[in-house]
Amino acid sequence: MERIWLENYPENAPADIEVPNLSVYDFLERTADDYGDVLAVIDGELSYTYEELRDEVRRFASSLSGLGLRKGDRVALMLPNGVEYIVSYFAIQRLGGIVVQVNPMYQAGELEHIFRQTEPLIFIGEAKQKEKVQSVKSPAFGIYHGHLQLDENEYDLHDLFDQGNSGSIPETVIDPGNDPALIQFTGGTTGSPKGAVLSHYNLVGNVYQTFAFTSDTLQRPGEIFLGAAPFYHVLGMSSVINQGVFAAATIICMKKWTVEEGVDIIERYRPTYFPAVPTMYIGLLRYAEDHPISLDSIKAMTSGSAPLPVEVMRKVEALTGGVISEAYGLSETSPTTHRNPFKGKRKTGSIGLPLPSTECKIVDIESGDPLSVGESGELWIKGPQVMLGYWGLKEETDEQLQDGWFATGDIAEVDSEGYFYIVGRKKEMVIGSGFNIYPNEVEGIMYEHPSIEELVVYGVPDPYRGETLKASIVLKDRETLSEAELIAWCKKRMASYKVPKIIEFRDSIPKTSVGKILRRELVKETMDHMEKERSQ
């Protein structure tokens, strides 16, 4: 596809970049050399300059080396946001190890899946995770943060921080283009999670792509990053840790997002950059209805993981005075591929323009033939941020990666100015009475209803149509709306075959820890209910 998007690029943003031959750890070395006295991390009462952070990382790398960690070994990292996560992350990278990101909320069955696939040499987590980890029966060394009775092959995290010798770390040669830095498991919203293998080149490249595109807004040094997005997720890992350290920014760690604590931190530390997910913004707006708050330090925000309603975007920008850049990315793309400019033309509802050095095309789902402007098809991406493949899954890798192109599984369109729009997921496409229906498109229209706080649209079996649409809806406080009223409202705004035939009002919608809606849970819930009705 011709790169028509370049005409709307931010001023001074290049069409292409050259990715330097660096490892992820080199970000920390360079920043500590250039800005050693700059405050690097604030974690509650703890704070570290970049020089202090590097020294802590070096000592822990020495301890990990003493435990036998070598290049290519996997380390399962299962910590909440905090300095312990950042130190562990860079210490593993220093030795050429591979970080396996693990959600601290995972239970034994989910851990077993990840441990079985990646076979980590070492596990790093909180003391309260010990029982879950032991039930998996992994041979990995256990390193724990917190007070507990240590057994054989178990160590205290801060003891290893203190005992290491920063001057005795073996040299490790990293080949950025071929050596994995990270295994990021996909969200598992549509099936069993797969481990996307991201190289040093992938992660470094995505940081350089992002800063080349946002150089008119984000500076090095001088920024304060609010680290509320989970570090174990690809969004927090890239947007906070990698980008923050690269930019010599001060990273404020939030172990768990709550609106009250978030507002307190924003007012106290006055961050300038806030990478977040829609649920965080919605929470801030609700809180602001009853509390006077000051958020005017925030000049730049990003939104990912789920669609951001237009009304929410406008209200948050009015509340902060900052700009939200809607973006798009995946675990398999390190993660960012598209972004709306902070300055220049932004299109609400669009994922924006491809980042520098990113190629995109939209192809027909059936034939794979390239499609034109305005036509809906699967989005394919090629660029330095595209993963090496899925860990241990050659068949799945070959299916998703073809000649360097990654087939995203997302249905998209591009307009005449090069702005891309996600219409839906290929696997979530609903075929009702022979019509192809994309739930995201229907959701976008329904979000315009003034009484709706949150919703999700999905397909369920129907004996007549094959599939039919169901909408699960959370109403705003003190709002009322009937099924008949909403269906009548929809019929005036979309083709009749797109109007949900089943409307469900509920108090909340199930989501992952980063705000991604779990459609599969809603589908299962509906299927179980239908089965129960049939058996009665």
From TrEMBL:
It holds the Pfam family AMP-binding. One of its GO terms (molecular function) is CoA-ligase activity. This is Long-chain fatty acid--CoA ligase. Residues 441-516 form the AMP-binding enzyme C-terminal domain. Keywords: Ligase. Residues 28-391 form the AMP-dependent synthetase/ligase domain. The lineage of its organism: Bacteria, Bacillati, Bacillota, Bacilli, Bacillales. InterPro entries: AMP-bd_C, AMP-bd_C_sf, AMP-binding_CS, AMP-dep_synth/lig_dom, ANL_N_sf.
